[in-house]
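The following record pairs a protein chain with its ligand, S-adenosylmethionine.
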Amino acid sequence: MSKDEVFKENMQSIGDFTFSKNVASVFDDMLERCVPLYQEIQRMIVEMAVDFSVDGTNVYDLGCSTGTTLLNLGQNIQSKVKFIGYDYSEEMLAKCKQKLDEHQFPRDYDLICADLNQGVHIENASVVTMLLTLQFIRPLKRDMLIGNILRGLNENGCLILVEKVLGEDSFFNRLFIKYYYDFKKRNGYSELEIAQKREALENVLIPYKLLENRELLLKEGFRYCDIFFKWYNFCGVVAVK
Ligand SMILES: C[S@@+](CC[C@H](N)C(=O)[O-])C[C@H]1O[C@@H](n2cnc3c(N)ncnc32)[C@H](O)[C@@H]1O
């Protein structure tokens, strides 16, 4: 796995973060070192997806990046389903295809290159996963996207959402962000790397509060919604149609 050193050198000017080729090439290391308990989150998602998947339906991963989630889902779900990964980064999808090929992914699957800001076409879905991706969708487009997902899910189908979130008030928000940067330092990132990445993400990654995400899901019509994971400013929510 190549090491993430995207923000290691001092940069003269810092542009907006993009999911470009240099990010795609180190992305698995970036996720491991930037997302607390990422392996456990993956394990929990798979555990739930196994229970919700139904023969003859589709399982979607929105913002599939390099295909880690698709691979884990495909290796564990026994139901006869088709897997569909969505991402707007061609570089990410190329890495995804390469990873699935390397593992001789034995499942029926499609990878679709499309911008989720335009909405998404989902049909006959029993499970939709969206990890650390809704936070990159323009806030004005999020209601529409969640509505698209809801309509494409079958009755009793689920959406599994993982997001970076804001604390419910600025007091805890500040504290949680401090703990998060300490976590990144423990994983080998320097103060400079952390500061430069924060600046690059500022206009691109727009987190909601946990309760705002929950409200969005319920408002669009999900029947049940619960939190399955929380670590300071990271949160996993599962919602059922
Ligand atoms: C943080 S990564 C997701 C990580 C991945 N789900 C995982 O856990 O392995 C966000 C992904 O969403 C994709 N993305 C961001 N905005 C998007 C958009 N508007 N349409 C489609 N994909 C988007 C990016 O290209 C990137 O691959």
